[in-house]
C-alpha cells in the first residue's frame, strides 16, 4: 500500500509537471501573437448581388474579391440594414434597426440632425478596447459637429459628409454618363460638396480626383502606418460611392460597367497589398460588402441583381424598379465577403439569412468586449461560424423592412418566405421622372417563396386565413419595437439652410489644398510625411522588433523541454530505487519491463 502511495505521488507530480508545461507553452503562444485582429471593411454603394464572380459565374471582372471569398466566407443571403444609404449605414455601425435608432431615411445637405448622439457606433466600442479607428469616404450620418465621424468614435476621417451626388462637384477631367440621371452641376441652387479631413473642410466643392481610389489608398496607408507604429490593432472603413455614382476619367477611362467593377476590385486588391506591406494579412479581418443595392436608373451601369429581379413590381409599374430604395430582394440583398486567414480555417459559402445589424455583435465577440445592456441589439453574431468553419444551424429568423416616414413595417423575411404589406419601386432606367413615392397597400399581403421563386413573380397568398396570420406577425413585431424597454432614439429630420456646411463663415467655396496627386508625400493633419520612405524604414526594423518575441518563444520552449526532462528523470530515478536497477538508465526495453511490473 505504501508502495502504491509512493507511485501515485510520483505520477501526480509527473502529471502536474506536464500540465504546467502545457499551460506555459500556451501562455507563450498567446503572448507571442497579437490575439486581437485588425479589421478592414471595404463597402461601396449600388453593388448588386450578381456583381461578384462568387455569386455570378458569368462575371469575370472581380478576381480579387473572388479570391477573398475563396479564402473566407461568402454570405449568399446577406441584406443591407435599410434600402437607402443613411439607414443602412446606421444599422451597420450600431447593430440596431431604424425602429430603435430613429434613422429611417437619408440625411441631406440641409439636415439639422444626424445619427442620435446617444447611439453608439462600433468605432466607439473598439476605441475603448484599444483600437485605432479610421473612416475614409462617404459618411451619410449627419454633418453637424456632434454627428461627424470624429465625434462618433473615429480617430481619423477623410472624405465627404454625404454622397457627392447630393450637390455640386468639381469634375475637372472626369465625367458622368448622361443616361445615368446623376446631377453634379454647380448651379446657384445647389450646395458645394465639401471635402473634409478631420472636422475641417479642406476643399469646396470637392475635386473628383481627391476622392478617387488612389487618394483613398494613400490615406489608408498612412492611417495603417500610424496604427502599426503605435502597436495598436485598428478598424478601418473605406466607404466608396461606386457603383451608384459612376465617375470616369476623360483621359483613360471607358464608361463601361466592366471598368467600374475592375476599379472596385482594384480597391479590394489595394487593401490586401497594404496588409501584406505591413505583414498584417494573416491576422486581419477583411470584409467586402455594399452599403446599398443597385441603382436601376444608372441603366447599363447599374448593379446586377442576379436572379432577384422583382418581376411582380416591374409588371405592376414599368416606370419603377425593385432596386435601391425599395424593399424587394434586389434592393436589399448584396454581397458580403469576409476573409480572416488566422481565424477562418475552412472557407465556404453560407446560405444563412444575415444582415448588416449582425456586424456589431460579431466584432464584439472578435475583440472581446461586452455590448451595453441598456439597449436592444438586433444582430446575431457570425463569430461561431467563422471559428467552426461551417454554417451554424440557427433557429428561424425574421428581418423587418421599415417605411421611411413612419415606424410601420412594410415587409419582412422569415426564412425563405418574403411578405409585403406595402410595395413600391425606385426610378427605373426607362423612366422620365421619379415614380410615385406612395406605396401600394395590399389587402391580402403579397407572399413569395424564395426557394423556387427568387424573381418574386408568383404571389401565393390569396386566403383570408393566411392574410390574418401574416398580419398577426406584423402586429406582433410592431408591438415589440414600440414597447421595447431599452433605449429608443429620435432623429431631427428638419431642414434649414443654416445647416449647410461651409469652409468659412463667408463662403462655401474655397481653393484647393496642396496637390494630392503626388502619392509619395501626403498630409496627415499638419504633418507632411514621406510614407514610402517610412514604410521602407519600418520594414527594415520590423524583424528587429520581432526579435524579442522570437526570443521569448525559444525561451518558453527551452523551459518546457527542461521541465519535461526533469519530470522524466524523476520517474526513472523512482523506478531505479524501487527495484534496485543498476544498469544504464537508457535501456528502453528494460525500463519498459520495469514499468509493466510496477
Walk me through the structure.
By secondary structure, this protein is an alpha/beta fold. The chain is 34% helix and 17% strand. It has a 10-stranded mixed β-sheet with strand order 8-7-5-4-9-1-11-13-2-14, sandwiched between helices. Strands 16-17-18-20 form a 4-stranded antiparallel β-sheet, with helices on one face. A two-stranded parallel ribbon has the order 3-15. A hairpin with a 2-residue loop joins strand 17 and strand 18. Helix 6 packs across helix 13. The radius of gyration is 29 Å and the shape is globular. The two termini are 13 Å apart. The N terminus is likely disordered.
What features would you highlight for this structure?
single chain; 598 residues; alpha/beta; ten-stranded mixed beta sheet; four-stranded antiparallel beta sheet; 14 helices; globular; disordered N terminus
Brief digest:
The protein has 14 helices and 22 strands. It has helices at 2-32, 63-70, 85-94, 98-101, 122-128, 213-229, 257-277, 311-316, 329-332, 359-367, 383-388, 464-482, 531-579, 588-597, and strands spanning 38-45, 73-75, 78-79, 132-138, 156-160, 174-175, 195-197, 200-203, 234-243, 248-249, 284-290, 320-321, 336-339, 348-350, 354-355, 398-402, 409-414, 417-423, 426-427, 440-449, 521-524, 527-530. The chain is 34% helix and 17% strand.
Amino acid at each position: 500500500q505504501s508502495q502504491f502511495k509512493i507511485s501515485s505521488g510520483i505520477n501526480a507530480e509527473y502529471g502536474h509537471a506536464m500540465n504546467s508545461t502545457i499551460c506555459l507553452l500556451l501562455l507563450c503562444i498567446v503572448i507571442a501573437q497579437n490575439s486581437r485582429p485588425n479589421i478592414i471593411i471595404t463597402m461601396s454603394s449600388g453593388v448588386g448581388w450578381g456583381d461578384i464572380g462568387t455569386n455570378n459565374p458569368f462575371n469575370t471582372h472581380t478576381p480579387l474579391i473572388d479570391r477573398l471569398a475563396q479564402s473566407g466566407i461568402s454570405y449568399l443571403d446577406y441584406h443591407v440594414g435599410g434600402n437607402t444609404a443613411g439607414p443602412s449605414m446606421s444599422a451597420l455601425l450600431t447593430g440596431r434597426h431604424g425602429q430603435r435608432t430613429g434613422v429611417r431615411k437619408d440625411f441631406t445637405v440641409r439636415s439639422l440632425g444626424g445619427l442620435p448622439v446617444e447611439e453608439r457606433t462600433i468605432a466607439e466600442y473598439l476605441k475603448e478596447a484599444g483600437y485605432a479607428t479610421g473612416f475614409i469616404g462617404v459618411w451619410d450620418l449627419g454633418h453637424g459637429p456632434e454627428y461627424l465621424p470624429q465625434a462618433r468614435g473615429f480617430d481619423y476621417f477623410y472624405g465627404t459628409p454625404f454622397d457627392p451626388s447630393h450637390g455640386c462637384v468639381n469634375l475637372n477631367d472626369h465625367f458622368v454618363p448622361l443616361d445615368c440621371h446623376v446631377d453634379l452641376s454647380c448651379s446657384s441652387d445647389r450646395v458645394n460638396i465639401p471635402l473634409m479631413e478631420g472636422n475641417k473642410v479642406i476643399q469646396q466643392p470637392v475635386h473628383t480626383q481627391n476622392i478617387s481610389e488612389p487618394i483613398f489608398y494613400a490615406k489608408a496607408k498612412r492611417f495603417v502606418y500610424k496604427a502599426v507604429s503605435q502597436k495598436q490593432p485598428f478598424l478601418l472603413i473605406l466607404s466608396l460611392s461606386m457603383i451608384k455614382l459612376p465617375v470616369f476619367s476623360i483621359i483613360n477611362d471607358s464608361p463601361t460597367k466592366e471598368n467600374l467593377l475592375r476599379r472596385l476590385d482594384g480597391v479590394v486588391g489595394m487593401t490586401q497589398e497594404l496588409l501584406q506591406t505591413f505583414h498584417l494579412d494573416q491576422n486581419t479581418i477583411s470584409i467586402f460588402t455594399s452599403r446599398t443595392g443597385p441603382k436601376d436608373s444608372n441603366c447599363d451601369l447599374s448593379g446586377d441583381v442576379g436572379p432577384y429581379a422583382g418581376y411582380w413590381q416591374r409588371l405592376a409599374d414599368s416606370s419603377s424598379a425593385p432596386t435601391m430604395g425599395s424593399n424587394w430582394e434586389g434592393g436589399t440583398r448584396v454581397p458580403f465577403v469576409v476573409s480572416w486567414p488566422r481565424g477562418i480555417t475552412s472557407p465556404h459559402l453560407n446560405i444563412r439569412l444575415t444582415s448588416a445589424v449582425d456586424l456589431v455583435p460579431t466584432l464584439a465577440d472578435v475583440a472581446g468586449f461586452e455590448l451595453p445592456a441598456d439597449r436592444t441589439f438586433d444582430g446575431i453574431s457570425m463569430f461561431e461560424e467563422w471559428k467552426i468553419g461551417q454554417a451554424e444551424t440557427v433557429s428561424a429568423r425574421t428581418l423587418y423592412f421599415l417605411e421611411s416616414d413612419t415606424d410601420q413595417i412594410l415587409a419582412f423575411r422569415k426564412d425563405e418566405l418574403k411578405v409585403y404589406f406595402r410595395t413600391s419601386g425606385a426610378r427605373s432606367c426607362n423612366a422620365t421622372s421619379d415614380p410615385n413615392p406612395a406605396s401600394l397597400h395590399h389587402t391580402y399581403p403579397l407572399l413569395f417563396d424564395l426557394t423556387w421563386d427568387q424573381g418574386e413573380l408568383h404571389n401565393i397568398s390569396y386566403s383570408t386565413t393566411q392574410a390574418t396570420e401574416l398580419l398577426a406577425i406584423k402586429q406582433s413585431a410592431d408591438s415589440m419595437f414600440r414597447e421595447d424597454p431599452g433605449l429608443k432614439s429620435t432623429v431631427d429630420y428638419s431642414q434649414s439652410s443654416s445647416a449647410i456646411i461651409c469652409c468659412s463663415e463667408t463662403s462655401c467655396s474655397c481653393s484647393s489644398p496642396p496637390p494630392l496627386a503626388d502619392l509619395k508625400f501626403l498630409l496627415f493633419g499638419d504633418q507632411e510625411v514621406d510614407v514610402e520612405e517610412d514604410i521602407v524604414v519600418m520594414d527594415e526594423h520590423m524583424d528587429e522588433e520581432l526579435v524579442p518575441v522570437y526570443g521569448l518563444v525559444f525561451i518558453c520552449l527551452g523551459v518546457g523541454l527542461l521541465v519535461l526532462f526533469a519530470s522524466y528523470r524523476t520517474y526513472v530515478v523512482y523506478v531505479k530505487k524501487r527495484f534496485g536497477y543498476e544498469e544504464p538508465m537508457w535501456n528502453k526495453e528494460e525500463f519498459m519491463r520495469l514499468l509493466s511490473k510496477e
